[in-house]
Amino acid sequence: MADKRLGKGLDALIPSYATDDRHIDGAVPLTQIIPNRNQPRQEFNPEQMEELTASIKENGILQPLTVRELEGGDFELIAGERRLRAAKDAGLETVPVYILSVDADVEMMEYALVENIQRVDLKPLEKAEGYAILSGKYDLSQDDIAKRVGKSRPAIANALRLLKLPPEIKSSLNSGKISTGHALAILGLRKSLQMMTLHQKVVREELSVRQTEALVKKYSESFKNNLKVKIVAPKQSDVIHIENELISLLGTKVAIKKNQKGKGKIQIEFYSENDFQRILEIISGSEKKS
After folding, report:
1. Does residue 81 carry a catalytic annotation?
2. What is the CATH number of domain 10-121?
3. How confident is the prediction along the chain (290 residues), in pLDDT tens digits per residue?
4. Model's pTM, two decimal places?
């Protein structure tokens, strides 16, 4: 039985799965090719697509698309989504293809992933979502995925962790404002609000990955120290009640520290200039009412 792991690359696998004498040059109509429903690539760079379309108009398709044959004579695309789209934009009616004998959907997903990884880099979150499909939909372990796409298990694990990021940070990662290294460092924080605050600082101050990791360590140590203080000196019920009322009023984290002599301080957190102004307006409004 042929080795179906993808670590060796798509081109090396084509001879193993190609049906006898089924390499067709320029004979498959575009209208008979159905896109891969599990296509991992979600965004296509407009400039790169224009360049590819111009190249196809001038030189044709140099690398055949990879498809599998369906009942009824149509074909489902396995790899080559960019070439398929560019061929349509270039006005082609037929395209060259490799027809592979692939029955399982999980193999389809594997081929699409490895083709995109090897030819034009997928965005980090697109890779992560592809791995998540292999894990969730097809019940593959991280070790299985690593072997099939030619990556290390830690690389797969770190990619999947990116899916836990808040939406705003995912957007920054996709747009290139932060790197995968920044994103993984930010994930070292426990709460979404902490992640968002650090993310804004990273983007605003253009911090390096190493600087981001140092801040995560600092914030984490501070969080642990605060936990220890709370355990040693638990707050009185009336203080907790007032804290909760302030949190409800201001819509942000509030901490009251009060000693036995009645002295202390109230800490109100804000996460941006707009958030700061919003809290000031609430406090000012409360003072006017009273």
Report:
1. yes
2. 3.90.1530.30
3. 333 333 334 444 344 444 444 555 457 899 999 887 766 666 777 888 888 899 888 888 888 888 888 888 888 888 788 888 899 999 998 998 888 776 666 666 667 666 665 555 678 888 888 888 778 777 788 998 888 777 899 999 999 999 999 999 999 998 899 999 999 999 999 888 889 999 999 999 999 999 999 999 888 877 665 545 444 455 577 788 888 888 878 878 888 888 878 788 898 888 888 888 888 888 887 555 55
4. 0.53
Residue of 81, 107, 110, 126 marked active site: 81
39-70: b (≥16 Cβ within 10 Å) or e: bbbeeeeeeeeeebbeebeeeebeebbbbbbe
Instruction: Break the chain into its structural domains and give their ranges.
Output: 10-121, 172-226, 235-289
Interacting residues of 222 by C-beta distance below 8 A, sequence separation 6+? none
